[in-house]
Amino acid sequence: MRISRTTQVDLGRRDKLALHLPFGMIGLRHLTHFELEPAEESMPFQVLRAMGGEVVEFVVADPSVLLEGYSCVLRDEDVDSLRIESEEDALVLNVVAIHSHDPQYVTVNLVGPIVVNRSTLIGQQVILANSADFSTEHVIVDQRASGSVSTDTGSSV
Known about the structure:
Blueprint: E1 2-3, E2 17-20, E3 33-38, E4 45-50, E5 57-61, H1 63-66, E6 72-73, H2 76-82, E7 90-98, E8 105-108, E9 114-117, E10 123-125, E11 138-142, E12 150-151
């Protein structure tokens, strides 16, 4: 299934949204319950926080806000596992990496998004069927001292 557009989850009525990832995330299979909440003053970024004893947080974002024309193709087994019937059923979140204390160098993983069924709030991190089209470290901000400046979003993090 091709997902060519996504819309951010509406958190207007609640501060946090509970998500269940039964298979965890790649490299963190033991973490299966998360909270998703907006990152205050940093939209379109959101915080995906593991629930439970271990403190693990990720910055995530809707890829349609970060990258124009991002179109991900899900494998049939992922579509079936998540019970996604149309692209409107899918919430796609990509993990953002901030590589410095000051957000001078920021990348996003476009290969392994977290896909959530909007109705059930059950999701999983997947490797896209069209993963060869993307990078795990797609640069969205580069303002390092080397002098190169690049932003796909036109705004700072």
